[in-house]
Amino acid sequence: MKNILLIITIFFTSLIAKEEKSVDYLNLGAILIKDGYHKRAKATLDKVDVTKENFDFIKFYTLKGVMNQSLGYPNLSNIYLKEAIENGQKSKSVYLYMAKNYWVLKDYKNTIFSIKSAEDLAKKQETFFVILAESYKQSDDFDNAWKALDEGIELFPKYSKFYRQKFYYLMELGFYKRAMFYAKEFLKHQNYSTKDYLSVSLVMRENKMYTEAATLLEEAVIREQFTNPTGDDIKKLYELLGQIYIDNEHYTSAALVFDQASVFYPQFAHKAATLYLKSKLPVRSFQLNRRVLEQKEKFSQRVGIDIYLEDYEALVATLPALKRYGILKDDNIKYALGYGYFRVGEFDKSKKYLKQIQSSNLFKKATYIFEKIDRCENNPLDCNN
Question: Are the beta carbons of 292 and 273 closer than 8 angstroms?
């Protein structure tokens, strides 16, 4: 009985061994790579018997190179691809795989060499013009970078990334006016997407091109108003446009932007009111303050507006709200309230709030008011608020 079981075991083991030998792991690996199963392809290619007579090393090394690139091993990938070339691989596509690997490794010299070695095959894909141009640029060769983009535009005039790259290169070189042309071309070929308006405008802002950035953003706001006037995109446009006006110290323009935005986004009302006050337009600031939804922000800001308007009666009338929303904890508010009571002639209340100030700088300012109050109390005729 034991002998029979042994014979059966040997028989099936022999069958399995024969079956494994009959499997073409090399071609199976190629199919798996083509279908995107790279991890399975790795396990399969590891089973390949490279000792076979007339073994196809070109195919083996090429497959291993492609597989390792997909698995995120650019160095190892290029080792196998070089072996494929040394063993007689003639396909130019191998150089494109190598170019991508060198690009990931930031080896720009070999990236350029690999793309050039691929010859006309590289010219069939827009991406390689972008990679080639940036590799030249990273090698401080702006002339060839520009030529690569020009050639790309000639072959693929609708590919937006060429225009974006030219814009960035010109900005870096300081040719701001010329950069504007390519910024507009990029936006046109991107169908004027809000995301791209924002990215281009941010670059301009970083280079202090406030007027040009504002012009682009105004155009973007107008476009977005016709398509999605209450979406998140136009909100970002308003915010950046207003901030650029602030950067350029055009506070009234910034206030107008946030004023308009506050119709759909009430959170901008506080910003608009602040900017109107900074622009010496207190009445409009007061009107926007009424739109502020956050009550603590609203009444804190209202104190500043009342002081600017010298409406001290209105200022002290906000006391219940200041208490209700915990705003009186702020020394600045205590000082403002103390000053307001002083101006309306309620000296006891003025001193009450001024004495609560903890800030040394503000208390020094409060000391002047204490002196004024003493003069007023001792000689009302000499009191001049």
Answer: yes
In this structure, are residues 299 and 327 in contact, taking their beta carbons and an 8 Å threshold?
yes
Q: How far apart are CA 337 and CA 222, in angstroms?
A: 43
Question: How far are the Cα atoms of 1, 40, 99, 135, 166 from residue 132, in angstroms, in the given order?
Answer: 73, 33, 9, 5, 13
344 Cβ contact list (under 8 Å, min separation 6): 312, 313, 316
CB 337 within 8 A of CB 317: no
Distance CA 204, CA 186 (A): 14
**Contacting residues for 46 by C-beta, under 8 A, at least 6 apart:** none
What would the pLDDT profile of 191-223 be if each residue is shown by its tens digit?
899 999 999 999 999 999 999 999 999 999 999
User: pLDDT by residue (tens digit) across 318-329?
Assistant: 999 999 999 999
**Closest of 239, 247, 160, 242 to residue 209, by C-alpha:** 247
Q: Supply 250's token pair.
A: 């055009």
Mean pLDDT of the 301-317 span: 94
Angle, in degrees to the nearest 10, between helices 142-155 and 126-138? 170
Rounded alpha-carbon distances, angstroms, from residue 86 to 70, 82, 89: 22, 6, 7
Q: Phi, psi (5° rounding) for residue 349? A: -65, -35
